[in-house]
């Protein structure tokens, strides 16, 4: 048995099939002979000084240098016979670009193993597109004894690959190329030059339909030698198409279906499944086995190319007798001449990579951060910062200042007595009876608010992006309690500064502020809770008795002195104060008048001084009660303004530190989701 090799100039030598070429004086050839023939032609043209024509005529692969000779006998311009992929109008370049952008955007969020397959597809696609687009690499794969080498020889028209009963017969991939220019493709497959063949001169070599075909015979995929199986896996990942050869005994082998056909179901358009050795089946048994093979392929999820639909080609033949081989040659020739096998293979690879990445990109439902979640987060921060309690305290402080300004002297004297903090005063008693305040109450509320909003934003997201959203929220929440304290103090001090009528004396009084050292806690997700160690301000006990005891921990709307900033007085307060002073003077005048009558200094007459004194006694409370009624509306509005300022300060701080990073992470996910949609939009497998 002899076979023409692709290693000697002009393909004019023969060697025993499967044997090694002898080392000559030149040390052996490593290429397919194309480079040497071109170099010789260039030297010949340079010596003759002649310029070749613009057209080229193929004289057949069996004639030395025939592809370099023009129709007029002169040598043609030596244009490369390898046409690399150019700009294509199909969807494949767009999908590859989208996949490349997807991998680039995801490197910071997904681990390397998750993106490894997509990166491999991009690398292999780039490598294949740099090589010949005029060639189609088709591998023949099968199990031990399935007859793949016999089919390989039948298609090549020569006994190129060894056949026999010894197992395994094929130990290394053997390639047969019908045209020149396939050296780069074979180098990519790591097929050495001694295993590269050309079809024997004859009808098979001059078959126009096979021009551009590179046929590769692979070792057994179920070989006992691990190296053989590794070579099969390596080459199958690089070829443009594959012909699976099965026999009536092993067509249902689980190793074939579970390891190859089922994972490669998305590559149906570049797959041929051939039932060989039908000459061993009697009567209609071949049709029955073929129908059962189609059933198994359908269970594997592989689309079958029947009734004009795209899918795998399934047929039966006998490579030994030649029955069905012409039909396979015809279908394979049309497949090669379409020049679409490589793009189809790459597109199927992109589909497979996208299917593997689907769990990390496709979310359940419509994840995101809605307005309701934002409002609830703001409400929780406002509760943690004590906005409502601060508003109530500001309202009470307004009323207290009104009482101080418009109240009777006797009531003001009593309040002064209480403010001294004597052992028997109600202030001291209230401090003694007040329960100890928990320093971490507000901090825990902030942590809970951050945890809830992070869970709401991550709900439905794939695991890596949900983790990224939670980390963004927790990292942004570090230092949030301290920032809320600072903003709350500024918001509380704002009105006093604006009015210019705040009590400097009250502001100068420094009340004691307890500080608690916060510790970092961890949430149920294992991420940092976002609470950096630092001081958490507490409202003083004095402020608590005066109306701030309902607010805990974080900013309570207190001035630097520990009490709420003294609200500005309305314009009518001086008139009320003057009226109260008048009532007090009437009381004093009436009392002195009565005292004078008692001691005999003045003439007796109790009615007039009693009425004057009664008018002062009754008028003082009336003025106070009137002022109390008049200040209800302004006090309520002042308390609402204080609550609103503190709430807005807390919302702004929470938005800048938590919501904005979470929104940025969600926007990043939406961006990669759009890239993923672009990758799968033109899927050829429907995955």
From TrEMBL:
Residues 18-35, 503-512 have a biased composition (Basic and acidic residues). InterPro entries: GTP-bd (IPR006073), GTPase_Era-like (IPR005662), P-loop_NTPase (IPR027417). SUPFAM superfamilies: P-loop containing nucleoside triphosphate hydrolases. Residues 550-560 have a biased composition (Gly residues). Signal peptide: none annotated. Residues 1-78, 493-569 are annotated as: Disordered. Residues 138-258 form the G domain. Residues 513-549 have a biased composition (Low complexity). This is GTPase. The lineage of its organism: Bacteria, Bacillati, Actinomycetota, Actinomycetes, Kitasatosporales.
């Amino acid at each position: 048995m002899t076979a023409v090799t692709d290693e000697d100039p002009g393909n004019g030598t023969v060697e025993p099939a499967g044997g090694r070429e002898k080392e000559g004086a030149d040390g052996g050839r490593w290429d397919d002979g194309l480079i040497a023939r071109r170099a010789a032609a260039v030297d010949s043209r340079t010596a003759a000084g002649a310029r070749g024509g613009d057209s080229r005529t193929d004289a057949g692969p069996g004639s030395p240098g025939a592809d370099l000779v023009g129709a007029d006998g002169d040598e043609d311009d030596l244009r490369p016979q390898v046409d690399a992929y150019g700009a294509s109008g199909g969807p494949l370049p767009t999908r590859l670009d989208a996949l490349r952008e997807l991998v680039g955007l995801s490197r910071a969020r997904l681990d390397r193993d998750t993106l490894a397959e997509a990166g491999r597809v991009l690398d292999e696609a780039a490598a294949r597109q740099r090589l010949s687009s005029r060639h189609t690499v088709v591998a023949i794969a099968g199990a031990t004894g399935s007859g793949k080498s016999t089919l390989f020889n039948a298609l090549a028209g020569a006994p190129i690959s060894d056949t026999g009963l010894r197992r395994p017969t094929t130990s290394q991939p053997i390639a047969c190329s019908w045209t020149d220019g396939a050296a780069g493709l074979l180098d990519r497959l790591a097929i050495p030059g001694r295993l590269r063949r050309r079809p024997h001169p004859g009808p098979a070599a001059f078959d126009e339909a096979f021009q551009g075909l590179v046929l590769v015979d692979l070792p057994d995929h179920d070989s006992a030698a691990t190296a053989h199986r590794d070579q099969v896996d390596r080459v199958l990942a690089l070829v443009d198409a594959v012909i699976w050869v099965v026999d009536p005994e092993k067509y249902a082998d689980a190793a074939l279906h579970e390891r190859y056909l089922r994972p490669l179901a998305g590559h149906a358009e570049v797959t041929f499944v051939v039932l060989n050795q039908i000459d061993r089946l009697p009567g209609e048994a071949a049709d029955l086995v073929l129908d059962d093979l189609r059933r198994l392929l359908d269970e594997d999820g592989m689309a079958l190319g029947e009734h004009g639909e795209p899918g795998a080609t399934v047929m039966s033949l006998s490579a030994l007798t030649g029955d069905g081989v012409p039909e396979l040659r015809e279908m394979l020739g049309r497949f090669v001449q379409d020049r679409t096998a490589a793009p189809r293979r790459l597109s199927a690879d992109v589909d497979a990579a996208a299917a593997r990445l689907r769990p990390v990109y496709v979310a359940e439902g419509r994840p995101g951060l809605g307005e309701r979640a934002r409002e609830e987060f703001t409400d929780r921060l406002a509760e943690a910062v004590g906005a409502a309690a601060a508003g109530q305290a500001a309202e009470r402080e307004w009323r207290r200042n009104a009482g101080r300004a418009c109240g009777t002297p006797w009531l003001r004297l009593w309040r002064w007595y209480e403010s001294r903090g004597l052992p028997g005063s109600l202030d001291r008693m209230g401090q003694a009876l007040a329960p100890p305040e928990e320093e971490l109450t507000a901090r825990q509320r902030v942590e809970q608010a951050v945890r809830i909003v992070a869970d709401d934003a991550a709900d439905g997201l794939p695991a890596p992006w949900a983790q990224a959203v939670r980390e963004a929220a927790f990292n942004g929440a570090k230092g949030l309690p301290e920032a809320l304290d600072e903003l709350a103090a500024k918001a509380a001090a704002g009105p006093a500064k604006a009015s210019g009528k705040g009590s400097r004396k009250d502001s100068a009084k420094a009340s004691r502020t307890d500080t608690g050292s916060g510790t970092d806690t961890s949430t149920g997700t294992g991420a940092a809770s976002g609470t950096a160690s630092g001081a958490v301000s507490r409202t003083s006990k004095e402020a608590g008795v005066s109306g701030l005891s309902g607010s805990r921990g974080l900013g309570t709307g207190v001035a630097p002195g520990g009490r709420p900033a003294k609200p500005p007085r309305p314009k009518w307060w001086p008139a009320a104060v003057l009226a109260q002073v008048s009532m007090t003077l009437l009381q004093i005048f009436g009392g002195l008048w009565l005292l004078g009558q008692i001691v005999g200094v003045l003439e007796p007459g109790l009615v007039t001084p009693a009425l004057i004194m009664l008018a002062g006694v009754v008028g003082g409370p009336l003025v106070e009660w009137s002022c109390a009624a008049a200040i209800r509306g302004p006090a309520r509005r002042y308390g609402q303004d204080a609550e609103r300022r503190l709430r807005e300060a807390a919302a702004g701080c929470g938005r800048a530190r938590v919501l904005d990073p979470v929104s940025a992470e969600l926007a990043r996910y939406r961006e990669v989701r759009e890239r993923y949609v672009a990758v799968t939009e033109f899927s050829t497998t429907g995955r």
